[in-house]
Amino acid sequence: MLNFAVEIKQKNIHIKKHTIMKKLTTILAMALMAVMTVSLFVSCDEDDEIAYTLNGTWTGNLSAYYQDRWGLVGDHYRTTITFYQDGTGEEIDYDVRSPYRDHWYCPFLWTVNNGTITLRYKDSEWNPVYIYDYSLSDNYFSGYMDDGTNRDIVFRFVYDGSFDWNPFYELYDRGYAKGNNVLTRSSAGKKAVAMGAFAKTNQ
Question: What is the C-alpha separation between 159 and 56, in angstroms, rounded?
């Protein structure tokens, strides 16, 4: 009789331990789900904030450095890039001394995911560009672009509320893109256009 009572007591203790462990496991699982949900919302909120700040036009310097057999070389451009709220955008790289004669223009699509800004240019020959090491405020945007090559692409932009795209649009509307030293690539909607010195380097 004593052994039976001891056995019942041990079973009750085992059941209580099992119940406690089950409750702890449930509580931990719920806590983990809550943390993951909060993280997801924070991430989405951060992405929305980045996209909101990014919206608009930025102008500055863009430099691409790469190694050849003679050492470090690079290309340097004046660049203006506009991000629209609908996820589209347009970029133009140009010679500041002759912007309407020597430039490269291309529309793109953009997204922000987990803090990484992705640009997908409508010129199909270009890889997507990822921007994940950067500093962004209401007035300044600087950092590095990764286009999947061995180039180091550095940019430093300031917010530009006065840039006028119309002179470039007018060039294309007049059919200027059919002239000499001009390279165009068709895409959905707008075209990627290289003019002057930029066309020569892209052909």
Answer: 8
Rounded Cα distance between 163 and 97, Å, is 16
- The predicted structure's pLDDT at residue 194: 72
- Cα–Cα separations (whole angstroms), residue 21 to 26, 30, 31: 9, 14, 15
The strand pairing partners of 156, in sequence order, are: 61, 142
* Per-residue pLDDT tens over the stretch 142-183: 999 998 888 889 999 999 998 998 888 877 665 554 544 455
- Whether the CB-CB separation of 82 and 55 falls below 8 Å is answered with no
CB 119 within 8 A of CB 110: yes
CB-based contact 103:195 (threshold 8 Å): yes
**The pTM is what?**
0.70
Gap between the terminal Cα atoms of the chain: 98
Give the per-residue pLDDT at 37.
45
Radius of gyration of the chain (CA): 28
| Residues in the chain, overall count | 203
Q: Rounded to 10 degrees, what is the CA torsion of 73, 94, 87, 160?
A: 110
Q: C-alpha distances in angstroms, 75 versus 35, 104, 152, 202?
A: 45, 13, 11, 13
Instruction: Give the bridge partners for 46, in sequence order.
Output: none
Tens of pLDDT, residues 69-90: 556 567 788 999 999 999 999 9
